[in-house]
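Researcher: Let's continue the batch. This sequence belongs to PF03932 family protein CutC, and it's 220 residues. Same format as the previous ones, please.
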Amino acid sequence: MLEIACFEITSAETACQSMADRIEFCDNFELGGTTPDFYEFLHLKRNYKTPVYVMIRPKGGPFFYSDEEFLQMKNSIITFKEGGADGFVFGILTSNNEIDEARNGELIELAGETPCTFHRAFDRTPDLDQSIQTLIKLGFKTVLTSGGKKSAMEGKEVLKSLIQKYSDKIEILIGGGVRSENIEELKKFTGGTSFHSSAILKYDTFVTDDEIKKLKKLSS
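Model: Same format as before. Here are the structure tokens for PF03932 family protein CutC:
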């Protein structure tokens, strides 16, 4: 399973026309991804069959939100769900970087049957084993992780352990610097089957079709 992170409409269209199994659609690459424009999302849903998972994140920075920002997140889920979102990607932490069970639970409830991914806020939590058990209990279908490190290559030992212990209960989506030059090694070492990449090559701004095809071929 190959998910392509798309931070603007051009990359999203490239990924939808290429071999991505699904896309994670968001805005603001420099902030690590925020909630995208609703009308651009509708354009993708109307013109392509590729599943679109929507990032629900009102701002960059820490994954701790004010009451007003949390309300924004709830409203975004309602709006994008009505628009036909295939999945949601979000993650709320407490001020001491633990999983905020109450708030994440509320968003999962609002999402209903729409599957939810807990994004890389997971990697900031102090105890990944405890955190992943909390996510499973809350009902997340997927967790995006680099094994608590800056990149998936650096976190591959932890990823291998998480996959061995929990992959039958939650999809472990390997992300963080995943590219065609390392995806084979990551797959072989960790035993992972789900990968997340921006498919943006060095010095490029947009997703490239060629990189998506290579990623897909090497991860299959």
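Researcher: Any comment?
Model: The mean pLDDT is 96.
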